[in-house]
Amino acid sequence: MMIRYVHQPTFLTGDELSISTFSLLDPEGELYSGAEAPALEREHARRLYQAMLSTRILDERMMAAQRQGRLSFYMQCVGEEAAVVGATAALDDADMIMAQYREQGALMYRGFSIDEFMNQLFGNELDYGKGRQMPIHYGSRKLHYMTISSPLATQIPQATGYAYGQKLAGDGQCTLTFFGEGAASEGDFHAALNMASVHKVPVIFFCRNNGYAISTPAVEQFAADGIAPRAFGYHMHVIRVDGNDVLAVYEATRQARKLAVEHNHPVLIEAMTYRLAAHSSSDDPSGYRLKSEEETWRLKDPVLRMQKWMLKKGWWSEEEETQQQESLRRDVLETMKRAEKRPPPSLDSLVSDVYADVTPALQRQFDQLKSHIRRYPEAYPQGARSLDLTVKTPTDSKGEA
Amino acid sequence: MPTMNMLQAINNALDIAMAEDEKVICFGEDVGIFGGVFRATSHLQEKYGKARCFNTPLVEQGIIGFANGLAAQGSVPVAEIQFADYIFPAFDQIVNETAKYRYRSGDLFNVGGLTIRTPYGGGISGGLYHSQSPEAYFTHTPGIKVVVPRNPYQAKGLLLASIRDPDPVLFLEPKRLYRASVGEVPEEDYQLQIGEADIIKEGSDITLVGWGAQMEVIEKAVELAEAQGIACEVIDLRSLLPWDADTVAESVLKTGRLVVSHEAPLTGGFAGEIAATIQERCFLYLESPIKRVTGLDTPFPLVLEKEYFPDHLKIFEAIRESVNF
């Protein structure tokens, strides 16, 4: 710490420094003058755009399914596809992603199949999470995507720890963690950034500043100029980026990754975007924001912006657009039907994975539960399905002594 | 066999674990060059470098959040929380993250490599915030293990077992005994089985159950009881989650009497769990009500620490009342 003495009192507010927003594409999909498109190969750009489009369509279909009562709960990424997919596309596919919950676009980009999405959403026997978590809590070991946890911001210090392990392992990977501007109020956020800076950890903190934490607008979340200035307090590299401009997000994250992996500099990225959808299927934004506000952001739609750029480059066509939309909608509907019909996870999955092995105490409880279900199988249809009902139920009414 | 105090035994276990596996990483507040405020991590930074033994900023939720991520990555973190009284900022990370990592991911990810070490307990004039025994908050959390050693030999064997256990472990160290408890400890590597109680002394009249620092208090009470011809069976649980109900039940089936003692307050304390389980399993064999000798339902006091404490005299009285019921 440098101490420089002055002899007049001076108070600073941070307003001395204004943070600009990095943007390459305007809402019409044209590069701003002086802006240079990142070195993005045609195939890479197509993969990126297709993931954005697929995420949009998946969200549309699943929200509709939720409204039809086929799904208990859903959360859409609508409006934030550029932020999520752009950041993911700038990573190595083996880098770890620790997301909050609205980042299905990252999985889409990495190749999580529609079947895999559906199995989780319906919590069936093929769900990797064994039907234990609410819909949208995806995880994939092979795609290096940490299973989602509902408590907010807990993933942020974990990302610091995970990346510290990657640094020690020396395999050239980093971790990117997503979170919202609301979650950045949690203590875990501050702990994570401070520890990452102190220990020089290859981690990228990616804030989706989408304007709202459920109903609470950003102006009621913090008094400062967004999340970005917090990086200075931790002496961390920071960039603010237009979160609806996928090229800018991609380029900012690509360079952040270089800082992280090559120099062990953690980086904070604040992507300015907007949650076009409700917070979740249980939320109704008409109670806290104006339709007109939503409309101004619809004009900045990140998927359309990228589509326009792709069309102009000749890397995408109207026919491909129609064809992909149709085939994906069909695919989602068919897969959904399949996933809905699959049986639930077996009763054993109620007690497995609490520990590496079931403890004796839990085994006792489970044996008692099975006896009970055998007596009243109609009352527990999900569990009774996988239980052999013909097994004799031991009577234990006299206790065990 | 060398003689060690409990801190030396813990330090020795960490040294063995770090030498054996370069994925073992020790960190926490002041654990670096200083070796921890109690010196449990002395010389580890010198030996294994700053990357594997280091100070963290003063942020318990960050320490455990970081440790969770590091364990998920495949490392074997041994995180220190300087006093168990200060573990609560990390409560969310432990209860909602550490404990649920494997379950919620369907075993895609786990933090089984994690061990959280923290000194607990009173009797050192530590007052409210350097004396607490928070075990019951954690025994209510499926997914973690809770282990408490009573002496240097146990500390080394149980800590090595905790570090290598496939599940995350909260390792509560009785700080009153850090230097006070001295005993023979083998130089070499050994482990003690987590989840198995230790019958310290056999006896036919009454069973006494405890863990950690409370064991020596129980043993002192037992001396008084034995002098009056009461044959006591003494059991150290060693691990509270999971806890060895079979060993305790078997003992009570024989003695018909049970006294459980811990420093933490009575209400909601772990003794209640033991009493409930044992009355279920040994109901027809009980000769007297199960007794709990514990701290009061107050914060941990300072000047009146002796009065608060479930000392040997209170335990001795409980034994007498149980036997004379």
UniProtKB/TrEMBL annotation, chain A:
The keyword Oxidoreductase belongs to this UniProt entry's keyword annotation: yes
Cofactor section: thiamine diphosphate
InterPro entries in the cross-refs: Alpha-ketoacid_DH_E1_comp, DH_E1, THDP-binding
Residues in Dehydrogenase E1 component domain copies: 50-345
One MF annotation (Gene Ontology) recorded for this entry: branched-chain 2-oxo acid dehydrogenase activity
Function: The branched-chain alpha-keto dehydrogenase complex catalyzes the overall conversion of alpha-keto acids to acyl-CoA and CO(2). It contains multiple copies of three enzymatic components: branched-chain alpha-keto acid decarboxylase (E1), lipoamide acyltransferase (E2) and lipoamide dehydrogenase (E3).
Protein name, UniProt field: 2-oxoisovalerate dehydrogenase subunit alpha
Source lineage: Bacteria, Pseudomonadati, Pseudomonadota, Gammaproteobacteria, Oceanospirillales
Automatic annotation (TrEMBL), chain B:
Transcription among keywords: no
A Pfam cross-reference name: Transket_pyr
Enzyme class: oxidoreductase
UniProt-listed Enzyme Commission number(s): 1.2.4.4
Entry-linked InterPro entries: THDP-binding, Transketo_C/PFOR_II, Transketolase-like_Pyr-bd, Transketolase_C
Cofactor(s) the protein needs: thiamine diphosphate
GO molecular function: branched-chain 2-oxo acid dehydrogenase activity
One GO BP annotation of this record: response to nutrient
Keyword presence, Oxidoreductase: yes
Keyword annotations of the record: Oxidoreductase, Thiamine pyrophosphate
Residue ranges of domain Transketolase-like pyrimidine-binding in the record: 4-180
Biological role stated in the UniProt entry: The branched-chain alpha-keto dehydrogenase complex catalyzes the overall conversion of alpha-keto acids to acyl-CoA and CO(2). It contains multiple copies of three enzymatic components: branched-chain alpha-keto acid decarboxylase (E1), lipoamide acyltransferase (E2) and lipoamide dehydrogenase (E3).
Protein name (database record): 2-oxoisovalerate dehydrogenase subunit beta
